[in-house]
Give the backbone structure.
Amino acid sequence: MELGGLTFKIVARKAMMLVGAAAALAACAVTAVVALAFTVYALLREVVGPAGAAACVVGVVCVIAGLAAFIAYRQVGPPRRLSRDSVSSPPRMSTVDRIAQAVRDRPIIAAGAALAAGLMALRNPVLVAAVVRALTQPPRTRR
């Protein structure tokens, strides 16, 4: 099956590689936040005690989460209102093209979706096998 000059298997392989790269990036970010939490706790334990250091770690993690949420909100932005005159019919795009466009437009949301898909894949490998089988098999014809 041809899809914009690329076969479906190549597009599916590239999509899977993109999902894997996003999951690796998310894992690196989580590792960095955990390491930062240990560092902040170790630095503040002697100054404010164990309970105070734990509270400071929670505060730092909350600030990081707030910044991530703010950046994600800025990426999405408020909905745009269009006048009836400016609305034209968009060109027909395939599902893969729409997904690729969404990943380019909103990379943070795409990384979160990739992380969620990776976690779901870890919990249910049968589902992953079904998705891979559906992506790699040629379409069936009706009789």
